[in-house]
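S.,

Sequence below, as promised.
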Amino acid sequence: RRAPGSESLKSWLQTALSQPNAKTLISPLPLDHRVAVYSLACKSFARALHIHPATTIVENPPDLSDKAFGRPLFVHIAAVVALSGSKANLSSPVALLGGLLDLEYQFWRRRISKDVTHDDWADAMAWLALVQGATVEELGAAASRLGIAYSDLKYWMRLVYGDPADLAKVAALEHDLLNEVLIVQQLGTERG
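The prediction came back faster than expected:
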């Protein structure tokens, strides 16, 4: 069974992709298509995560009228953050990115170590984004200067973000919206 609006969404996507600059510039997602995209994204992410979200999450999307939700990425982020049960303001693009960062930190805690604090993780990530890669020793020295208590964080960073060409190096993190929000958040903290 097709989701409401999926045919018009398909039509919008086909039109957007047929434009000469489609690979670099796609027209904003129309407001009347955003709910369908949100609903489809919730269902797809729920299937992939093997969860059964409350019907209210899927069928009652947040306010998607902000200009940022013209970018399908933000609609998808709203779906992921909503499915996580986050208390982030789902109608605020900046709050959504903060909610997504919280999910990444929770991933670290579950998969890597429950001993790493949010501030230690976020400071190390922000530092790596700013310096664009470092050796494990440089990361360790920076962690010490930043007051990061979890001494094994440098090894976990190497394991997750290691540079395959140099085993002693943690690769550069991409400049993206998440890292920008992370850097701004951490600059506003006591250690920032």
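Residues 31-49 form the longest helix (19 residues).

Coffee later?
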